[in-house]
Amino acid sequence: MPLTSALRAASVAALCVAVLTPVTAAGPASAAPRGGDDHRLQEQLDRFVHSPGGPPAVIAVLDYGRKTRVLTAGAADLRTGRPPRPDDHMRIASTAKAYSGAVALALADRGALDLDDTLANRLPRLPAAWGAVTLRQLLQHTSGLPDYSESTAFRDEIRADPRHHFDSRRLLDYVADKPLRFAPGSRYQYSNSDNIAVALMAEAATGTRYESLLRELVYRPLGLHRTSLPQGYRMPKPYMHGYAVDPPAAPEDVSEVLGMSGVWASGGIVSTPADMNRFIRGYVGGALYGGRMIHAQRRWIEGASEPAGPGHNRAGLALFRYDTRCGAVYGHTGNTLGYTQLVAASPDGRRSLTFSATTQINKATDPAQVERMRELEENLVCALLRHP
Predict the structure, then answer these.
(1) What does each C-alpha distance from 112 to 204, 257, 325, 326, 374 come to in angstroms?
(2) What CA dihedral angle connects 29, 31, 33 and 35, to 10 degrees?
């Protein structure tokens, strides 16, 4: 597929979100209207889609346990004009890191892994200089691992062929000659390498491929029937088309530009809003592992997801806490070429929210749009938590 030079650059930026990640949590979102009714939320979604550089479509699915609200704006496919639906597939980007966390914590709960297992113990082929890094530090982004997606060689391969097939289990080879960025556990810095290492540790501990572990430990227990981790670039149908938005040019469909082998456990999962809601309810609600792991997971430190979620962000183990004016929710965000995601649940897992936009929104592409999005997300959180 021929690509413009701008799109080639965007494809690299889509994978290299770690260059944007903050060391400390973002501040609270600006004050926003307190309206929680469908009409006011619908107006806010419409304004967001029609704002300069706004996404072609958004969908918000709010699940209260016995009731589900679905709000949409824009078109999932600009050619046909059809609206997005809860069962449309989409790339979930870095929210996939929560799924690798679910695998690791489920294995730790069963005794197959320990949060204090080190890379030297589980993955001795990796550089000895990284050996002291623990599973706990990988899950909380305090490992200091250099980010493979920032590697010049990796970026060059993406530019040359965005659909290049990588050996997902050798992605860390791109930075094997690099030292740790800092002493393990000494500070927070988001890195795509962390979740590649998590998946490799899970494979080493079980002798089972990561894709099979996802099916056994996450998809099947939670009833996720439209979730998968592909290696290629094709999207399963039906899907929400992802777009590169760069006014005044028309939005460009980039849904199938990138192959997923180069992101793998750090962001390659394809799912639907409905499945993502089921996932986050079970993940936060304790359906996949017991209280000991839940307690360990919720030892929060300062650190934000990318892009920052609503309110004040803090980091746990493959989970973020978002403290908003209406209360706290736990979840994860993500962005990649064509898609931006938030998935969150109340601390007991009984209420959940998925918010999806069909373009990449982050601090590099449009900082003002990020803040508008965070304000909208906070309003959705308030609608989720305040509903009787």
Answers:
(1) 10, 37, 40, 39, 38
(2) 60
Query: Where is 315: in which H helix or E strand?
Result: strand 312-315
Tell me the per-residue pLDDT of 92-110, one tens digit each, with 9 for 90 and over.
Answer: 999 999 999 999 999 999 9
Structure tokens at 363: 């601090």
Q: What is the pTM for the complete model shown?
A: 0.92
**Separation between Cα atoms, residue 263 and residue 12, nearest integer Å:** 11
User: What single string gives the DSSP state of each residue in 269-283?
Assistant: -EE-HHHHHHHHHHH
pLDDT exceeds 70 at position 130 = yes
d(CA 324, CA 310): 7
Q: Cα–Cα distance between 174 and 74 in angstroms, integer? A: 40
* Residue located via tokens 């639906």: 85
Coil, strand or helix at 100: helix
Burial of 132 (0-12, 13-18, 19+ CB in 10 A): middle
CA angle 345/319/62 to nearest 5° reads 20
**Cα–Cα distance, 250 to 247 (Å, whole number):** 7
> Is it true that the peptide bond before 307 is cis, omega within 30 degrees of 0?
yes
Which of these, 140, 142, 168, lies nearest to 154 by C-alpha position? 168
Q: Which residues contact 230 (CB under 8 A, 6 or more apart)?
A: 260, 268, 270
Separation between Cα atoms, residue 30 and residue 376, nearest integer Å: 10
Peptide bond into 248 cis (omega under 30): yes
* pLDDT tier at 280, thresholds 50, 70, 90: very high
Tell me the sheet residues that pair with 359.
243
pLDDT in tens, 297-322: 999 999 999 999 999 999 999 999 99
Report residue 318: phi and psi, to 5°.
Answer: 55, 35
Q: Are 283 and 188 in contact (CB under 8 A)?
A: no
Residue type, 134: T
